[in-house]
Amino acid sequence: MTSLLVIIVLVLLAVALWQLTKIFDLTQVGASSDDSQVASDNDNNVQGYIMFGFLAFIYIFTIYGLLKWGNLALHTPASEHGLLVDNLMNITWVLIFTVQVITQGLLYWFSFKNRGHKDRKALFFADSNKLEAIWSIIPSVVLACLILYGLYAWNNIMFVDKDEDVIEIELYAQQFKWTARYAGADNTLGKANVRLIEGVNTLGVDMSDKNSQDDIVVSELHIPKGKKVHFKMRSQDVLHSAYFPHFRAQMNCVPGMVTEFAFVPTYTTAEYRELPFMVEKVAHINKLRAEKSVELVKKGGTALDPYTFDYLLLCNKICGASHYNMQMKVVVDTPEDYKKWLSEKTTLAQDIKAAAAAEKPAEGTAPATDSATKVIDTVKAVVDTVKAAVAKVAMK
Ligand SMILES: [Cu+2]
Predict the structure, then answer these.
(1) Distance, CA of 234 to CA of 271 (rounded, Å)
(2) Of the four listed, 54, 69, 71, 253, which is most buried by Cβ atoms within 10 Å?
(3) What distance in Å separates the CA atoms of residue 357 and residue 361, rounded to the nearest whole number?
(4) Domain at 167-352: CATH code
(5) Closest C-alpha among 193, 260, 252 to residue 230
(6) How far apart are CA 89 and CA 379, in angstroms?
(7) How many CB atoms lie within 10 A of CB 293?
(8) Are 214 and 367 in contact (CB under 8 A)?
């Protein structure tokens, strides 16, 4: 409601301003001798200087932005292929930046230098083959090199050899959480289908498949350092995107199909926390949090907990109201710690058995409820039959 009022006020203000300028114009009739629509030398000078000023603004703002926000870019990659991705990204940035600085400079400089003047006449020529060749061939060659390098990087990153020793993990996306399924001792994920979702089997794993028997379902992702992890993504509802910023990996999760991505983590969570840039970043965040906490405590609130770094799996497709909070903690362990963590987990088959066992005694101890439910069911069935009969009669 408030925003509607603000919009109405702004519109009315704009109308008032427009009317005022019209009145102002009317009061000026006959006052000025120069009411020509052709730009004078003075107009051209003013436009030329404004354009030059805009060029200065672009350059100064670019430098300011780099200095002020440059440190927000992702730092050291935590996966093997991350270096390749960063390299490609950096080359692209340097190229774009150089070309942008030169072409914008030339564009505005020429506009300023050749601004309109009553003694100056524009040179006319139909075309220049030499110029056309220069500005077509150079960008084509540069872009072709960049695309070839990109394809080389893509193939290197995306290709998983069938015989390669990898850890198979499924990432299951749904509004608004992630769940992971480990393939277990056989390292083969059992079949799954959303139609089989029931009770604790929230991923719809086909329990009649022998490969499903040792599958493990967890809500926190642990992966070992130095080992290739092959993720297979599924989505239950809408398009999501599995995004691991620190590992430079992202892949869409599409309902009805399985997508994949593989990478080798190169720093354990503990090691990454110790990197100098991360120590500095966390100290900075905690300094801000401490300052905020003082304010909160003054207002009678509770102080904020100090922040510790953790790798995250985020969703990078706007998939609904709580999209911003769709994340899962990722822990990179040493291979030994990873094995230990995984061995402590129960399999999905065990979870389903335990859930069934937990339900049984409840059924035994409540016979009264059981018979009451039966009576309700019978009444419901009778009501349905009567309804159907009435509907039939109505149709006739
Ligand atoms: Cu999502």
Answers:
(1) 31
(2) 253
(3) 7
(4) 2.60.40.420
(5) 260
(6) 68
(7) 17
(8) no
Residue 229 in tokens? 């992890």
Which residues, 6+ apart, have CB-to-CB distance to 334 below 8 Å? 224, 225, 268
CA of 270 to the centre of ligand 1 (A): 28
Q: What integer pLDDT is reported at residue 195 of this predicted model? A: 85
Q: Which two three-digit tokens encode residue 326?
A: 């769709």
Buried-exposed string 364-380: b where 16+ CB fall within 10 A, e elsewhere: eeeeeeeeeeeeeeeee
Domain spans, the chain: 167-352
From the CA of 157, how far away is ligand 1's center (Å)?
24
This prediction has a pTM of 0.72
**d(CA 318, ligand 1 centre) in Å:** 6
Ligand 1 centroid–CA 323 distance in Å is 5
* CA 14 to ligand 1 center in whole angstroms: 41
- Residue 49 has a CB neighbour count (10 Å cut-off) of 12
Stretches in the chain below the pLDDT threshold 70: 29-35, 361-383, 385-396
Predicted pLDDT at 208: 85
The rounded Å distance from CA 355 to ligand 1 centre is 29
